[in-house]
Every structure is written in structure tokens, then in C-alpha cells.
Amino acid sequence: MGERTLKNKVVSGLFWTFGERFVTQGISFALSIILARMLMPSEYGVVALVLVFVNIASVFVTTGLAESLIQKKDTNESDFSTIFYCSFVLSIVLYIILFVSAPSIAAFYNNSDLIWILRILAIILPLSSINTIQQAYVSKKMMFKKFFIANFCATVVSGCIGIFMAYNGYGVWSLVAQFLISSVVGTSVLFFTVKWRPKWLFSMTSAKELVGFGWKLITANLINSVYSELRGLIIGKKYTMADLAYYNRGNQFPSLMITNINTTISKVIFPALAEVNDDPSRLKNVTRRAMKITAYLTFPLMIGLMSVANPLILVLLTEKWLFAVPFLQICCVYWLFQPMQTANWQAIKALGRSDLLMNLEIFKKIIGISLLLISMNISVYAIAISNAFFAGISMIINMIPNKKLIQYSMAEQFRDIAPPLILSMTMGGIIYTLSWLSLPVRLTLGLQIVCGVIIYVGGSYLFRLESFMYLRDMIMKKVGSKHRVRHQKVKEGKANAKAN
User: Fold this and answer.
1) What are the structural domain ranges in the chain?
2) Average pLDDT for 169-183
3) Burial profile 229-265: b = 16 or more Cβ within 10 angstroms, e = fewer
4) pTM of the full predicted structure?
């Protein structure tokens, strides 16, 4: 694929994927706020605990195998069908394991309600095995508009049903229905909008090759997932369901923002990186661009969110969720480090070095678990702080290999992210001082947000930040291209009218 063709596909992919993530997740966030105001923190805690087990099991069917399809340049129908059957059978086995284990898990946490909540939510596993291969096909073809349609429908339908059930007093089952219906609708829409269907093909050669790459990624992602969810398991056991809910709610705000940015960049950049993995200089350029853009978008969001945490929780969730404020601020620090981790991870993965990714994850998680064991008996806050500290260590560990692999040194990476970081910290300090004013909480929050946007965008323009100029030019070209197409169609229409 040529440089210009690849760039056009990346720009188009970023446009549609950003649109999909921010529109659908924006709607999802709004719907979740409504639900949070209707339900109690303890009800959220129960579902959050169950999702820990479902999320860990999902790693086996949602990562690794599908990514091996994207990484391989010459995939065919046999490859896709082979991985589909492997993934689907594995998902059924995992569902049976969770179904049988549900009573034991419920007994361990002294909560019998967990049994059927886990058994029903685990239905997401076989649905995810289908959806993941669909998404791999869409990503491989860079048809990211399909994601927008599927996720938009899933978000709106599941959110509305969840709110309806909560309003009618279904409590925790409102959340169960929301998660399950979202998976059903998303998979169904992709089934009807994506032409790919599994064929009666199975190749042991394909299985060995793709699973040989994928199992290492699965191991790396499993280690990462277990580590991420381990906090939920410990908090749910040693503390209360309400504590788990406050922790998860505090993490939800920054996680929603950064996961959407990271997911968008990963979906588009990984296929692009895989296309140029035989050219280290091009690979470095794409990686740098990904890092600069994610840092430019991530830093102001996280630092700004830390500054407005208290009025934000009061306005959106009311006082019953006020204990989530310190968790929100701590989790912002954790998510602040993610852009550098993601960009470096994607570059290593594109090179096919799944062995290195697995080793890195094992090394990082030994450090992380050690920090968790030290903090778990202190307090929930100590657990959150140790996680933020670990994120900084992980960032540095992920940076190190790329100095050798693509000649992208740690010093160069820090220079690339320094401008938006400095501007974001300046913006955050200024808007935080606005909270000292004796103003109504809604007015304070609105003033902080408006001032934050003006300071960051204005500063970006004033100092000509590279990522700002790049994104501005990209958006203007996209808008200008659409305008030219419309203008051309109007001219052709007039010409045809005159001819007739």
C-alpha cells in the first residue's frame, strides 16, 4: 500500500472511529449518569464484581486471535473461518466454566445474588467471539464506518431499556440487561452490515500459524486484564460493595475518555503499523504521530478532570456519590500515562514481537502485584494510589524496547509529549483556582470547563503546537473535501438539467 493511500485510509479511519467512540460513548455516558442517579452504589458494586470475571474470560476470545488476523498481511477466507471456529468453541467452554463456578464464587463473596447475574452476563462471551472476528474483518479492510453504526445502535437501545427497567424498579437487573442487550444488538448490526460470513473451512496450518502469534498476545493481555481486575476482586472481598462502586465510578470518568482515545488510535494505527512493519523509519513516524496526537488529547482531559472533580460529581451524580471524588482524581493520574504505553505497545505488536510483549507484561505485573499486596491492607485509597504509581513505571518499561526496535528513544518520546503536558498543567492550575470562588456549583463547573477549553485551544494556537496544527489541517481537509464533492455534484446536476 502506497504512502498516500495508507495516509488517506488512516485519516478516514481516525475520522470515523473518533466519531463512533465519542458519539456512542457520549450517549452511553449520559445514559449511565441517569442510571447512576436512579440506582444505589451497592447495586453498581454487585455488577462491577461480576464483570470482573466476565472481562477476564473475555480476553481469550476478544484479543490475540483476532489481532493475529490483522497482523498477517495475506489473510484469506480459510484464516478467518478457522479463527472464528477456534474462538467460538473456546467461548462456549469458558461460559460453561463460569456457569458451573457461579455458586462457588457467590459463596466466596457471601452474596447469593451473584449466581444468576454471573450466569446471564456470561452469555456475552459467545457473542463476543462472533463480534470480535467481525471487527477484525472491518479493521483489516479499514471500513470503520461499520463500527459507528453498530455501536450507535447498541448504545441507544441498551441504554433506553436499562433506564426503563430502573425506572420500574428492577434495580441491579437494569444494569444486567443493559450490558447484555448492548452485546446482542452490536453483534446483530455488524452481522447485517458486514458481508463476511464464516465458511465451512478449517485449516490446521492457519490455526498453528495464527494461534502461534495470538496465544502470546492472549497471555500478555490476560496478565494485564487479571492485574487490572484484581483490584476489583480484592476490594469486593476485603471492603464493601459500595467501596467497589465508588472506586469504579471514580475510574469510569477518566477511563471512558482515555479508553475511547486509545481504542480509536489502536483500531486505526495497528493496521497502519502492520502495513509498514518492514520499514523501521515509517514505523517510527506513524508511532510518533500516534503518540503526539493521543498525548495532545489525553493530557488536558485528565488534568482538567482532576481540577473539576468535586463540582462534577455533585452536579452529575449528587452527594450520594461524593466519596468517588478522590478516586476520580487518583485514577486521572493513572490514565495520564496510557498514551505512551499504548503507542509503544502497538509498535512492538506490529513488528510481530508478541514474545517481547508477553515478557514485558510478566515483568510489569510482578512489580504491580507487589505494590498491590503492600497497599491492599491499608485502604481502598492506598490501592488506587499504588495503581497510579505502577502506571508510571509501566510507561517507562514500554518505552525502553523501541529505542532498539525503531530508534525511538525515551528522551525523544518525552520531548514529543512535553508541549501539551506543560500547557495542560498550566490550564489545570488556573481552572482549579476558580473553585475558590463562592459561586453556585453548577456555575463554577461551567466556568471551569469554558475557561479550560479557551486556555488550552488558545495556547495551542498561540504556541503553534504541532499536534494542534496537524488535527486542524486534517479536519479542514476533510470538511473541504466534502464541500468540493457536494459542489461538484451540484454542478453536474445543473449540467444534466440543461442537457435535458
Assistant:
1) 254-463
2) 88
3) bbbbbbbbeebebbbbbbbbbbbbbbbbbbbbbbbbb
4) 0.70
